Amino acid sequence: MIRALILYFLSIKSTHGYDIQRFIEINGMDQWSKIQSGSIYYALNKLEQQGYIYTLREERNGARIRKIYSVNDKGREELKKIIKEELLKPLVGIESEKFLIYIMFNVLPKDELKDGLNEHIKMLEEKKKWWETGKKLKVIDTTLKSEILHFDYVINCLEYQINWHKTLIEEVDELIKFSDGVKKVIGKIDFGTFDNVGYKLEENKNLTKIQKLTDDIVKDPTNLEKKLENLIKLIKEN
């Protein structure tokens, strides 16, 4: 998913790795999912070697030279390919990267999103049916409780995944609109300027205000400049 996030970021604007890294950290993506901000620079180098992105220019930042990357047409097609592949992947663990896929829902046409999600739902339903059948065949009076809980855990996890993917389909229009809003925020803010800001849930005094304002920005683009100005102020105050 880190490759998709980088390509998505660069499809919105040409920027440096620290901008992307701070976006991940400020939004807590490295805590809520398996996406790690520290893997940004490795992924950038790899994507450039593979010809999906290129160095647009270099800028001096104090004693450091900062590369500004941009994406090419090959990279844009790779982004679409990755999103299609991610739609077919299962949720793995409570910190699954796939939970963040909806922020990139505006990359693909709505019909392609729904087709991919429906295909994955069908696979999950078949797997759930297989486990339910196995439970009926294997669970008897002498079956250990740990074995029964194993069946129940897998079946319940599959049921949750099915419901989550179905909800993505139900809310696809709202999620595409949401990702359009995220795109506007990314395009307007250099997150690399927030050096001392981190996502600490227990210490984040402005978290609720930031969340409400961010939701307002992504759902209602009117007065965007003023809202972004207020958002930057809140982030810096935290």
- Spans where pLDDT lies below 50 across 5 or more residues: none
Per CATH, the class reads Mainly Alpha
Major sheet summary line: 2 strands, antiparallel
| Helix-strand category | mainly alpha
Q: Could you name the CATH homologous superfamily?
A: Winged helix-like DNA-binding domain superfamily/Winged helix DNA-binding domain
Total domain units: 1
First-to-last CA distance: 28 Å
Features:
two-stranded antiparallel ribbon, 10 helices, 63% helix, single chain, 238 residues
Structure in words:
With 238 residues, the protein is mainly α. It has one domain (2-199): Winged helix-like DNA-binding domain superfamily/Winged helix DNA-binding domain (Arc Repressor Mutant, subunit A, Orthogonal Bundle). The protein is 63% helix and 7% strand. The chain has a two-stranded antiparallel sheet with strand order 1-2. A hairpin with a 2-residue loop joins strand 1 (53-61) and strand 2 (64-71). The longest helix has 29 residues, at 110-138. It starts with a helix and ends with a helix.
SSE map:
Blueprint: H1 2-12, H2 17-26, H3 29-32, H4 40-49, E1 53-61, E2 64-71, H5 73-87, H6 110-138, H7 145-170, H8 172-188, H9 207-219, H10 224-237
Antiparallel strand pairs: 1-2
